[in-house]
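Q: Sequence in, structure out?
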Amino acid sequence: MLITDILAQNSNAFPKDVALVERIPATGQRHEITWKTFHSLSIKTANALNLKGIKKGDKVVQLMSNALDWLPIYFGILHTGAWAVPLNFRFEADKIRLCTKTAEAKAFIFGPEFIQRIEEIKAELDEFVELWIYTGPEVGCPDWAMPFRHFIAEADGTTPPDVPLSLEDEAALYFTSGTTGIPKAVLLTHDSLMHACRVENEHHGQTKDDIFLCIPPLYHTGAKMHWMGSFMVGGKCVLLNGVKPEWIIETVSEESCTIVWLLVPWAHDILIAIEDGKINLDDHKLDQWRLMHAGAQPVPPSLIENWQRYFPGQAYDTNYGLTESSGPGCVHLGVENADRIGPIGLPGYGWEAKIVDKQGNHLPGNETGELIVKGPGVMKEYYKNPEATAKTLKDGWLHTGDMARYDMDGFIWLVDRKKDMIIYGGENIFPVEIENFFLKHEKIKDIAVIGVPDDRLGEIPAGIISIKPNVMMCEQDILDFQQALPRYKQLKKIFFGDVPRNPTGKIEKPKLRRIYAEDKRKNLEKLLK
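A: Exactly. Output:
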């Protein structure tokens, strides 16, 4: 079975039930479509693409912000046998060009907010892009594109193109977020997408009655793959356009959401809004909210401890994954282990995981090594990048680049990214450990720890600290608080400022290194004398 078959089943079984809801709190708009409409729109998209010459193996770029037609268009591309190529809507023109050229996309579907960026690079892309489809209001459609509604107007909406597809066929090309450099193209198969459905439903037991709140960008595997557990059983999904804490709580209450997946910064912001009195939980209907799960980055134990103070009856879970593993779930804590605050858990449904040293030897004890995983969700390859593929895929094992360790009970703890490790005078320092320590401070909203070059010690740990609203904090407060840390892990330089995160919640440490490390060597040497 393919995920397009699941959509057809939902349409047949629940034609009049609401499948997708879109809420735009900034404008007060709310729209919804049924499973029948969802299915019909996807088939129309597929047949329209087919009539324009899009066939199995072609690539179709999808550059759209979250919207009600995002998922029907995505499924429409899959129906044709073409590869769906969702792009990060924060990509600037140069990265859009790079990704589109890498894919050699034949069609390009885009929203109105991207017109200017596309026009900067369109002349270069016209070499292979034959079809430009615009999803915004018709009056704003550029003369070089076709409005989506016109594009699908004459297409059949009942029977998809007759294209032989198997689980082994390529389905989608996802580009990594690029926070560590040039985005890499991750090729996933139809089997990968189906496994994501099974994993999520096995882990969280979604039923037809569950209502899933989707806030992250749909171009990212983390958002869609969590939703797919509900999709598999015909559960409703609410797409929220915006991340203000008040909007999230209001949506949970008004839409009766039962499952919410949050990025760490959003959960932090909700807790701050509750503490500041901006959100009064008694004003909202939240009893039905049965599960909050978080991921996409290490989840600070202090965050979950604070969360459980305000939501004591709610189940908690964390999932670990990456684009190369078809999204979350290759390692999974499980709601039954929610009392174990801190670890990311055990191998997920259908997955194997182990921690290895530099030579690939298994490290069974409390030693730090690289986390590697194996299962049906592992990517096929980095498209057009055999060198990177060979470094990452070895004997079927995906080398994640994340450092981890086992505890006494065999649970996996994520330590940090291998490339983020700081080598301070010969000692290995993992920034996440320091970040988790400081997040316990009642005045600190967010923190990023990076290595700053030092001629004598190699690197020194520096912290970029964002404090909560309406509080005062100085460098001496930080120095006093960190006395509980081992001396070598204490911050040697402190900056107060914003902590930039990408749309999936990961700290953009390369950007911080450019700002605070690369140009600070001389200043730091003077300060440390």
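Residues 35-51 form the longest helix (17 residues).
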